[in-house]
Amino acid sequence: MKRLSFYLVAFALLPLSVAETGAEASLEAYGYRYRVQAILDGRVKARMIIDTGSSHTIITPKIARKLGITNLSKAPSIPLSSAGGVEWMRLVTLQSVTIGGHETKMVEGAVSSRLGRGVDGLLGMNFLGDYSHIIDGRQMKLVLKPAYETGELYGEKNQAWWRQRFSRYQRIIKKYTSIRDKLENGSPPMTAPVSKKGKTFTDKEIGAIIMYYKGLRAELARRAKALSMPLSWQNGR
Length: 237
Hints:
Elements: H1 2-12, H2 16-21, E1 23-30, E2 33-40, E3 44-50, E4 57-59, H3 61-66, E5 77-82, E6 85-99, E7 102-111, E8 121-123, H4 125-128, E9 131-136, E10 141-146, H5 159-184, H6 203-226
Parallel strand pairs: 3-8, 4-7
Antiparallel strand pairs: 1-2, 1-10, 2-3, 2-6, 4-8, 5-6, 6-7, 9-10
Helix pairs in contact: 5-6
Protein name: Peptidase A2 domain-containing protein
Pfam family, one: Asp_protease_2
Organism: hydrothermal vent metagenome
């Protein structure tokens, strides 16, 4: 409750000009949190809890099926943190997430069956981080203003956004490649920080995670090339 109050006070102190120029989406109360409607992949409506503590945008198995994601058992598994704690989840890719007219493409997603009733997913920072966002608890609205639309733009995103995306994918690929190399050299399996006792990464799981992020990086590079984006922007520095 204290954390929620802090956020409301902080958001209330932000300049009114941000709220006036940003796109708005209606909020619904969900316990001590807020729920907003999103459109996934341009066609599937989903009731999403706003979760600034989650790095990924998370969906339920039901929503995954509506999106045509069927082979979840073959998707890479990874421990992810959200407001509800740490859980092993299957990684998926959302082609787009749209809220209040704002769209982010190629969103890293994960699937969880522990989100509770009346919830289709959690809206994480890999969407929210693209925007200056205000949660207005009094007027029950979410205000979004693009954070990466200044300067020279390619695909409606500036150099900082592109560099950040490429850097993130490369950093994760490097991390899990290092873990795999250590396993191949005889190091003990890495135990993930999750309550499921004894759960460790297997070589197969690590390989699947690496391939997932290499796929995202390759798709991002394909988009960059199609937009004739400067090659130097793919450098994460």
